[in-house]
Amino acid sequence: MKPTLRRCLLCLLVIPTLLAAAPRPHQVKREFTVDARKYQFSPARIEIEQGDVVRVTLIAGDIPHSFTIDDYRIAKRGEPGKPVTFEFLADRAGTFKFYCNLTIDDGCRKMAGELIVRKK
Ligand SMILES: [Cu+2]
């Protein structure tokens, strides 16, 4: 096989993958910075629409905290001075609890907030 042909075949494989991974134009990207400190999330309520791409930056203000949503299989841990940013597609409508799943400190157990995904 000629090298150029081989390169083209590679393009055929790579380009559709890149296109599929790129956000679709109709998708709305929503960005939130969630501050976790003193056993509270701020904001404690996030409202979005089904189909939105949600980008969350978790800032742990005092001790390590996590942002966990079981139904979305999200569990991200932030440490003081080391914020963590992640994205997910809000494909499921409903009200979901987010909480801190760390067991370092008993106070983490009462940390909770709500992700509200409105049906489109
Ligand atoms: Cu915590």
Topology readout:
Layout: H1 3-21, E1 29-37, E2 40-42, E3 45-49, E4 53-60, E5 65-69, E6 74-78, E7 84-89, E8 94-99, E9 112-118
Parallel strand pairs: 1-4, 3-9
Antiparallel strand pairs: 1-2, 4-7, 5-6, 8-9
Offer a concise description of the structure.
This protein is an alpha/beta fold and 120 residues long. The chain contains 1 helix and 9 strands; from the N terminus they run H-E-E-E-E-E-E-E-E-E.
Polypeptide structure, described:
- The chain contains one helix and nine strands; from the N terminus they run αβββββββββ.
- It has one helix at residues 3-21, and strands at residues 29-37, 40-42, 45-49, 53-60, 65-69, 74-78, 84-89, 94-99, 112-118.
- The strands form three sheets. It has a four-stranded mixed sheet, with no helix packed on it.
- A hairpin with a 2-residue loop joins β1 and β2 (40-42).
- The radius of gyration is 19 Å and the shape is globular.
- The chain binds copper (II) ion.
- The site of copper (II) ion (CU) has 5 residues, from loops.
- Copper (II) ion is lined by residues 65, 100, 102, 108, 111.
| Count of alpha and pi helical runs | 1
Strand coverage percent = over 45%
Helix proportion? 10-25%
List the ions, cofactors and other small molecules found in this model.
copper (II) ion
Principal-axis shape? globular
Main sheet, how many strands, which sense, barrel?
4 strands, mixed
Mean pLDDT: 89
Structural class: alpha/beta
User: Can you write the helix and strand succession as a string?
Assistant: HEEEEEEEEE
